[in-house]
Structure formats: structure tokens, C-alpha cells
Amino acid sequence: MLTPVTDADGAPFWEYAAQGELRVQTCADCGEPRFPPRPCCPHCQSFAGEWRPVSGRGRVWSYVVPHPPLLPDYAEQAPYNVIVVELADAPRIRLVGNLVTHAGAPLGSFDPDRVRIGTRVRVVFSGGLPQWVLA
Amino acid sequence: MAGTGLKDATAIVGIGQTAFARQLPEDERTLACRAVLAALDDAGIAPGEVDALASYTMEETDEVELAKAVGLGDLTFFSKVGFGGGGSCATVAHLAAAIAAGQADVGVAWRSRKRGSGPRPWTGTAVQLPTPGQWTRPFGLLRPADEIAMLARRYMHEYGATRDHLFNVALACRNRANQNPAAIMYDRPLTREMYMTSRWISEPLCLYDNCLETDGALACVVVSAERARDCRRRPVYVHSAAQGLPAQHHGMVNYWNDDPLTGPAWTAARHLWKHADLTPEDVDVAQIYDAFTALVPLSLEGYGFCGRGEGGAFTEQGALEIGGRLPLNTGGGGLSEAYVHGFNLINEGVRQLRGTSTAQVPGAATCLVTAGEGVPTSALLLRS
Ligand SMILES: [Zn+2]
């Protein structure tokens, strides 16, 4: 499986995820959350950022079901769902992830035919990665 | 010349290409040389007169190697455009701008690619995953098809677009390829049943929603409108040209934008029409970038052929076929002629305005050519 190769801007997201926390980069001056992380706030141009915890609840904004040819580790689990989650408390923040049956379950554990746009989900963590389960 | 704009200041006077196939024996550099020489021969211009080059940043054959191999003159302008298939039309636009500004006289744009037999970028696992790969690839969103399928699903959900609409796009391209002996899908008709029962690549996109993996190369020659009058072929004027990188855009994964379904096409279109004497109603034929069928309805909306959310419905009743409102990708496009990062769409646009297409639109005098939607893009409005 591919693990995140982080950059300086993204590293805090993964450090919090490893501790089981979902946090989003937020402007320390104007309070606007932003994703993906970057050095500067596009709204007020401030370089002061902080990582604010979010509720970890959201809704499926869209989803796909990849089929092979895929990288071998992923082909073994296909077909699986990949979802984009719109966060409940920061609707403009959308995160790519997987809807699984329980924390630590494989990508293909939740039947892709049962995924719907609008489905309510909540975050769980496994091995430093956020995953999503039915809320 | 400064400040007078690009409008009709330059023209495409030569086009060239190699064969298209899943596998060609020659390497990319050799194919690039063949396409460039073919385009210059078509224009009736000697290689020694070329003083400008433009291609994609993803092009492997660099300017030094190409110029040396085919015997180009002293180059005074060279440019490369980023973002893969978003760069195609911009290569011509950069040459047009350079020539209009007096930086060069004879420009060649080209793309050579062995995507059919060569490696595909998404298969790399050892390479560092750059931003935004860290946000997508661990979760199995691996390929361009997966990234665009995510937008396609949302688009279909929001606007009621259907797989039949995507099929209409695939069918129009295939029907035109069936008329084009140079197309990879020349003798291979497509039916609705084949489409609906084909294997999935990334739901909601199936096999026929995806472009062809192709080996091949293409090139075209750009000169001033004045010079064009003395060339061998009827000039095809660059009436308007634009690039588009919208505010807060994220290439391929634009679902991080505030309004993900208005992509780079919208930005490019605003500039394109602002500097044109024409409107979408005046376009006789369109070559719209089709790495995936779902990009076409998004582009139809972005370039103003229909309202927002109406791109799917626009494809109904044969609108994209010859005789329809907007004949599409008349050489077969990336879906059925060849996928060479969209450069074949430029050459086909030129053929339409010369009146030499294998699927000629009678009396075609204006053609829109677009580059990849979903990434920072570019577009050309060509006229005869
Ligand atoms: Zn701010």
C-alpha cells in the first residue's frame, strides 16, 4: 500500500492523524480553514497558521469505484470505494478517503454498491490514516 | 505591433504526423523529427527557416536535440507548457504570441509520445508522491481516470447527466474515427450495447469513456498572417487563443475548489471570447479534449455552447455528429483516433478549415480546439 509522502505543509495533518485526531490547517488571523495545506492564507495573505480540530463528521460529496488495472496492493482489494467527504463543520473542506465497515478494515470492506452521495460518515483512524465509517 | 492583440495575426500553415498505433518501433525522438519535418514539408518551409519551438513540459525530446537532428536555424524563441494535456493549444498560442510580438518568424509546435508501449505515470510506486498525491494516492485514488470519475459522479448527481450522455460523446468520436483511415479505431464501430456492457475502469467511467493509449507524434507550423499568404497551403488563422488556470484550482482533483464543476474551461473561455469577433453560435465544428468522455459536457458548458448543467443534454439528438449542432472531434479524438495529449485535435481543426477532413463539415469556416479540462488548460479559435 502507498503511504503518504508528506511535505512541510502537510506534515502536521499526518502527525495529528497518527495520534487519532483530524485537524485542518486554519488561518490564525482570519480563521478561514484551507485544504490542501499551504504556507499562506489565500483570503488574507497571512502566514500565521494553526491546526484546528474538526468534528470528524461529514457527508459523501462524491465517490468512485476503481477496477483493475491498478497497483498490485490495490488491485487485490478492488472493487473498492474511494469517497470525497465534505466536512460538516467546514463544508468547503473536502477530504479523499475510504468508507469502511470499521476502523482498520480493508478498502473493499464496505460494499461499493451501498455508497451514496450524501451518506453521513464519521472519521476513524487506522495506522495513521483517516478512514470513514457510517455515522 | 504591441497591444494590437493576437487576432488573426498568425496562421497555421503546415501540419504533420506519424502513424498512430499501440506500438511503433521508432523512439520518441525519431517520431518527433518525422512529425516536424512532415509539417514543414506541408508548409513548404525549409527547416533552416525555423526560429521558434514550443512543446509540452512532459515532452521528452528537448529543443536542442530536435533542432540539431532536423537542421533548424538559429532559435530565438522556445517555450514549454506544463500540465500535460492542458498544454496542447498553448504551444500554438505561445508561438502565435512570439511571432506577433516580433520575437520569431517561423514557429513549430510538436508532441511525440509513446504512451501505448511506454510506461504510464500513475504506475510509479517508488517515486515520491508529490502534493497533492499525499491526499489521494494512499486511499487508492491512483489514476487520472479515478480522479476525473470523481468529478463525473458529482456532475451526474447534480445535473442528472447519464451514462447515455457519455455514450453520445464516445459514439460521436468513434463514428468519426470510422471515417478516418489514420485512426486507431478506423474499422471498429461502437454500439450502445458494447458501451453499456463493457468493463468498468473507475465507476462511473467504463472502458469506452477512456482515451486510447497511443504511440505517435504530431507537429504544426505557425507563421505571421503576412507570411502565410505565400505558403503552399490555405492558411488557418489563429483568431483567438487563451490559457486558463482558475483561482483556487487543483489540477485533476478540482473537488477542493469552492465550485469544482466550473473548471479551467470557464477561465480560458472568458478570455477566448473576449478577444474574438465570434461567439459560440458561430463555431462550425469543435475539437474538444477528450481524454475522458466526461470532460466534454463540462467543456461544452465552459465554452458557452449551453448553460451550466446542460452539457449532458446538449449531446442528445445527434448534436455532436456530422450534421448536428456541433460536430465533435471529427478525426476521432483522443477516444478513437489517437491519444497524443490532444495535439491531434489541433491538426484535425486545421484539416477542417482547409476542407480536407475525412469527416468534413460542409463549409466549415470556424473551429474551436481545446486542451485538457480538469487541468490548467488552453484553447484556440481557428478560422479560415
Ligand atoms: Zn487568513
TrEMBL record, chain A:
Stretches assigned to the ChsH2 rubredoxin-like zinc ribbon domain: 14-47
InterPro entries: ChsH2_C (IPR002878), ChsH2_Znr (IPR022002), NA-bd_OB-fold (IPR012340), Thioester_dehydratase-like (IPR052513)
Domain ChsH2 C-terminal OB-fold: residue ranges: 51-125
SUPFAM superfamilies to which the protein is assigned, alphabetical: Nucleic acid-binding proteins (SSF50249)
Protein name as catalogued: DUF35 domain-containing protein
Native source species: Streptomyces collinus (strain DSM 40733 / Tue 365)
From TrEMBL, chain B:
Lineage summary: Bacteria, Bacillati, Actinomycetota, Actinomycetes, Kitasatosporales
Listed name of the protein: Lipid-transfer protein
Alphabetical list of Pfam families matching this protein: Thiolase_C_1
Entry-linked CDD domains: SCP-x_thiolase
Protein origin, superkingdom: Bacteria
Source species: Streptomyces collinus (strain DSM 40733 / Tue 365)
Annotated SUPFAM superfamilies: Thiolase-like
Signal peptide stretch: none
Transmembrane segments: none
GO molecular function: acyltransferase activity, transferring groups other than amino-acyl groups
Limits of the Thiolase C-terminal domain: 258-376
